[in-house]
Amino acid sequence: MNIPKNLFYTKDHEWARIEGKTAYIGITDYAQHSLGDITFIELPKIGEELKQSGYCATVESVKAASEVYAPLSGKVLSVNTELAAHPELINQSAYEKGYFISLEISDVAEKTKLMDAASYERYVEGLTK
Amino acid sequence: MKLIFEKHREGRRGFSYGECDVASPKPLAEKYIRKNQAHLASLSELDVVRHFTNLSRFNYSVDTNFYPLGSCTMKYNPKFCEQITSLEGFSQLHPLLPQLSGGGMLAQGSLEVLYESEKLLCEITGMHAFTMQPMAGAHGELTGVMLIAAYHKNKGGRRKYIIVPDSSHGTNPSSAAIAGYEVIVIPTASDGYMDLVEYKKHLNNETAAVMLTCPDTLGIFNPHIKEIADLAHKVGALMYYDGANLNAMLGKCRPGDIGFDVVHLNLHKTFATPHGGGGPGAGPVGVNEKLIEFLPISRVVRRSDGTFALDYQKQKSIGYIAPFYGNFGVILKAYAYMLVLGKDGLISAAEIAVLNANYCLAKLKKYYDLPFDKTCMHECVFSAARQAKNGVHAIDIAKYLIDQGFHPPTIYFPLIIKEALMIEPTETESKETIDAFIKVMIEIARLAEEDPSAVTNAPLKMPIKRLDEVRAARQPDLSWKP
Amino acid sequence: MSYIPHTQEDIQEMLSAIGAKSIDELFKDIPASLAPKSFNLPASKSEFVVTQILRKLAAKNATGLVNFVGAGFYDHFIPASVDAIAGRSEFYTAYTPYQPECSQGWLQAIYEYQSIICQLTGLDVSNASLYDGGTALFEAMMMAVRATGRNKIILDSGVNLIYRTMLYTYTSNLSVEFVEIPVVHGQSSREELFKHLDDKCAAVILQNPNFFGAVDDHSDIVEKVHKSGALAIASVYPVSLGMLKTPGEMGFDIATGEGQSLGIPLSFGGPYLGFMAVKNELVRQMPGRIVGSTVDSDGKRGFVLTLQTREQHIRRQKATSNICSNEALCALRAAVFVSLLGKDGLKELAQHNYQKAEFAKEELSRIKGVEVKRSSPTFNEFTVLLPRHGDEVVHRMIEKGFACGFPLGRFYKGMDNYLLVAVTEKRTKEEICRLADSLEAVL
Question: What is the pLDDT of residues C20-72, one digit of tens each?
Fold first, then answer.
């Protein structure tokens, strides 16, 4: 299971890459693996305000629809438009080409509520036992 | 097989109306006429009949295969029930006739069918009145929840929540949501029943209703059901019965007696009307006295002279759920079925349905994990967890069964059981048929140990193999394009 | 008679395999206190006896009347092949095609039905059907509410009152606001409609032909509706689409309607067939089942239920609708019906309906005191103003063997003397002439 060291993680298997005041957000390798082949993704609109742990997006596979929550609060700056035509990017490259959105972080202190790579790895190990 | 559009031959016609016997009038103005022609296939009658007849032969159906689809009650559909609906007296009647002055007298036969069906269903379920309007089970659920909302609104407070167990059918929470309620989900405890502690914690005077299936979706009768009902009533909540599993209860127990206030039935399950490949069905909703005044308009009443009429006076009614009186053609079949079975027939149906399911349970429990080792009712739920360890999942078992000529049981429902296999043989299946099914299930269990790929590669004998459902969802092709 | 094959021997063998002494033992989980308080049903009867009972009931229905009543549900001729195909038990005793490998018959038939609805309505995608035209209209309305995030609906009174009442019933627990455009005899009032069009509107709902039989071209309305950011929904009569401008051509986003006219008997109110077709961009908002084409592992074309993540069995409380089923068998009937007719047959059917209705209009307008309303063009249904109360005239005409029309006073205040008359291809010239003669005699 791929868990990049430079990212932050949530218990619902979202990741955040923080670059200054911007955060890129997506779902982890563990998440894309359990969902199976992703068929569709519903993303928020640019400008929308998201809250930490609040609803962010919906990811669909053939048999399931899962909600994705925002790891951090902020305003949506950009949306990965490639995903509309190529949802499989999430399966193939969950941390890079398959990112969902970028947002302008409204409260950097919220970072403390997230897990680092090591903690997330332990968490996932606990789940798969 | 080719699409019907791919068999098009310009100039062919399957059905013609001949010469019109009146003169040709001035046509409508150009702006009202369609310019883009419909690209529909031109075919001869034989082309059409051969096409659809050949299509029909690609289906598994009750009339051709054992169909133990849990929760669906795929029992045999008696042919004489089909025949009855073709009586012109029933099939040709325009639904608006009773709304003409004196028109009620034109539809006495059909009004009597509706009235008498209602009476029979009341006695079978222990309820006081039924609306026959809902056109499917899910539609009945929505109607039931709307009745509950009307009841509470009338008392002064809509209330906010509806409680459902996590084993419920997906239509339960979705119906509740459409009626404007928030859903609270109570987990199933380790004993296989809805967790009573959690239930009591969440039950309060903001609970509008509790929606339950009985026996539950694990095929088990919950011994605490009366207690659950009493607790709900204490806080002023109503009890809703999802009648999907009524086949196990006929003559043995009535939801009205347990304390359910609203009940929906599935005529296409318990009352043997055909599933039709996915419809039409009918989902009549029964209520006790608390809710009669909210039932949809109109209701069939019997006058003192014995004739039947439609009563449109309903101030507190929730309104029109259906355009008319319900799926009359379906209700008629169920009525015929109830008359033919009678009291003894309905009781036998429940008894043999339960016998057949317990027989499956007894014969298969050595080979498949049984989440709850209790006497089941009309259906039993296994888990393919053991087989999944070798890579053989419930879906693979389903595909292998198809190769052997059986329609698979329901898979992956209820959601609370991993790799669920829900088997409902129904009472109309013989011991030999069930034995043949059991034999294959045992073979699958063996193959899962010795040669898993024999199962995971299935189906191999059908006209097509496993379909790419991911592609169907990613690149939807939902209509033929000319 | 209970269709149970078990012999006593079978039952004993099965009980011993289970380890139970009697069938009663299998019901031991039901406490004695919950045994039925009563179960007074009549004893079982033979099929022969029940058939006799039901024949007698069928005979109590008056089907000998010559039918000129429409109002959304029409007496059309159903070719024999439709019954023959729908009567094949490989179709009607199957369940929903969730296991595609053993249901290609059903899946392909529904795909063909979906394609036919698209061709009829001129829109891009159809679902596998809904319960009826009224629930289909409700679902269309909710799609507009979800897609726009707004909750005001402009509803033309030319939409069948039965459907309007259903919309009010279904939305009684939801925060949807309706504005009804008052009745204008004939075509929709643009003036009234545009008055209410603003940025709070989710959708405008129109019917073509409308309840009075009036035919219209709504393209101008649709254009304005789109400018305000709302969706345009049309409830349409499928037989009329053999002649009339389609909702697709007018620019509507969603078309719904009652498919009963496509090979489904009147059957006293059901089962019927709700159809829905939408523009491509709305497909993921569409409720109900949808069949899609794909390939199997060998590359062969096959069909599956797709986009199921919208549905209740996956989304549960977040589903686009609670719809679990469609009206598959009725959709099959429609597919067979339209296939038999082909595009030329559909045109012919529409032409016959139009022609006979125009003839009826001529015959009826000859009657002194009867005024055939001509303020708008019509298809196969039109309104007639009588010199007396509609109820009374209808009653007298029933005695003469005619269901001569639907008295509008039942549905619209102040229209007691109006009659809605429908003429389908089944009405012969002779029947139409007799209708006129009898009406003249009654008046």
Answer: 999 999 999 999 999 999 999 999 999 999 999 999 999 999 989 999 999 99
Say whether residue C87 is in contact with chain B using an 8 A CB cutoff.
yes
Cα torsion angle, A28, A31, A33, A38, sign: negative
B9's tokens:
């031959």
Total number of domains constituting chain C: 2
Question: Which residue from C minimizes the CA distance to B103?
Answer: C395
Partner B contacted by C215 (CB < 8 A): yes
Q: Which two tokens stand for residue B208?
A: 């509008």
Instruction: Indicate the pTM of the whole model.
Output: 0.94
Q: Which of C303, C321, C338 is at the close of a domain?
A: C338
Touching partners of B (3+ C-beta pairs < 8 Å): A, C
Q: Do B174 and C319 touch (CB under 8 A)?
A: yes
CA distances B246 to B229, B253, B344, B389, Å, are 18, 9, 16, 35
**pLDDT, tens digit, 9 for 90 and up, residues A44-85:** 999 999 999 999 999 988 767 788 999 999 999 999 999 988
Please give the residue range of the domain that contains residue C385. 66-75+342-442
Average pLDDT of the residues in B174-178: 80
pLDDT for residue C317 is more than 70: no
Nearest to B211 by CA among B109, B288, B141: B141
Same domain flag for C98 and C188? yes
Cβ distance of C69 and B94 shorter than 8 Å: yes
Residue C31 lies in a domain: no
pLDDT higher for C268 or A36?
A: C268
**Touching B: A residues 83-122, CB under 8 Å:** 87-88
Using a CB-CB distance cutoff of 8 angstroms, which residues of chain C are in contact with residue A57? none
* Interchain CB contacts (distance < 8 Å): A and C: 16
Using a CB–CB cutoff of 8 Å, tell me whether C365 touches chain B.
no
Q: What is the mean pLDDT of chain C?
A: 94
C163: left (phi over 0), alpha (psi -120 to 50) or beta: alpha
Q: Residue B37's CB: how many other CB atoms inside 10 A? A: 12
Residue B463 has pLDDT above 80, yes or no: yes
